[in-house]
Fold this sequence. Notes:
The complex is a heterodimer.
Chain A: H1 2-18, H2 22-32, H3 34-55, H4 59-63, H5 89-125, H6 127-142, H7 145-155, H8 161-170, H9 174-188, H10 191-199, H11 203-214, H12 216-231, H13 249-258, H14 263-304
Helix pairs in contact in A: 2-14, 3-5, 3-14, 5-6, 5-8, 5-9, 5-12, 6-9, 12-14, 13-14
Chain B: H1 2-11, H2 14-28, H3 47-84, H4 87-95, H5 99-111, H6 113-128, H7 131-136, H8 142-151, H9 155-183
Amino acid sequence: xxxxxxxxxxxxxxxxxxxxxxxxxxxxxxxxxxxxxxxxxxxxxxxxxxxxxxxxxxxxxxxxxxxxxxxxxxxxxxxxxxxxxxxxxxxxxxxxxxxxxxxxxxxxxxxxxxxxxxxxxxxxxxxxxxxxxxxxxxxxxxxxxxxxxxxxxxxxxxxxxxxxxxxxxxxxxxxxxxxxxxxxxxxxxxxxxxxxxxxxxxxxxxxxxxxxxxxxxxxxxxxxxxxxxxxxxxxxxxxxxxxxxxxxxxxxxxxxxxxxxxxxxxxxxxxxxxxxxxxxxxxxxxxxxxxxxxxxxxxxxxxxx
Amino acid sequence: xxxxxxxxxxxxxxxxxxxxxxxxxxxxxxxxxxxxxxxxxxxxxxxxxxxxxxxxxxxxxxxxxxxxxxxxxxxxxxxxxxxxxxxxxxxxxxxxxxxxxxxxxxxxxxxxxxxxxxxxxxxxxxxxxxxxxxxxxxxxxxxxxxxxxxxxxxxxxxxxxxxxxxxxxxxxxxxxxxxxxxxxxxxxxx
Lengths: 305, 190
């Protein structure tokens, strides 16, 4: 902790002297933080591996039930063996991870955009705008998530990654909006916002140019926290028993875990899970530090100029 | 250490974690019961009954608590790092305020905002229940009641539960708005 602060301070001093661009700050932080660099590389490798291999896999082939191949141990044909339906576990793992990652990233991005937009507007303008927007948020929060997801999954006949992410986004952006609004409410009372307003800066510019960078740390935390939970999100779809090969394969294996027979598979998925989220936080945290410095620099410039 | 705890807790899905502690404490060590909310055959109202209830509560609540504190820790940690760089902390230190005072009064107070924004929401979650944890520990709670009443088309129960969670959500939102203006008096919500 103390070392980190020292590092941050030395970084800040360097910043003031030569003032490099935000990207260069980010890169330097990343190289210095070995763990973050390692996890970023791991993440890139994992993603390219998963997305690359899934190009060569035929989903129909993998999910086909073959009664002669039930519970086979790992072999050359089936790298991780087969499950109770004689399906290749490795292929399911790859396709499942790909779908999970896509959905997680997509949902996080979309909820982030909506949540930041709504929260920033409500917090910055306050008063009536805040009232109206927050009542909309309240309305969405009251809706029972579980039931609506079941309804939507039953309504949409053939749902893809995109439509599924859209459904999830519609019911998951409220928390972010509330959080960002709370911080924006505090931020708008600060002097620099008032000064900017007095100088005649347009609202849009203050909102996105000045207030948003100062909320960056909170945005980064909520995005990473959400990404972690969103990657495991799509097992909601298993509720109405609609089955496309997904990472919730592991959900099915949970009973086998209790039998202590095939936990290798689980730990593999879980390792992928934890490592990816772990590394993501690290990368994001570094990014966060970079952007904080950047925003501080912006503020300093403003004060001077 | 705390950071690594948050990262691990952050990376583990709740249901996996719940299963692991169920297996470890409930099955392997046998310290706690693995399901239900009370041991069978006990007279309601007796001391053993209450203790058995309590004993059944420990594992599920531990699972939920350990995973859901992660978010709070992360928010607070990031806010504190953020606040620490601000000028008024430097001023407070320069004035000669002791470190503990700076931390407790200046930094902590200013970092509470995101937590205040969520405190009402957390209370709502307490009332509406958690489906997965209840399912894994086979604990008869709100979440499981909700799921089951949807599955058997018991609309009256569903309506009642939706109403209850709705009221809880609105009250939670109100509570966190109040908490916001207590934590940061500059915020004025009309």
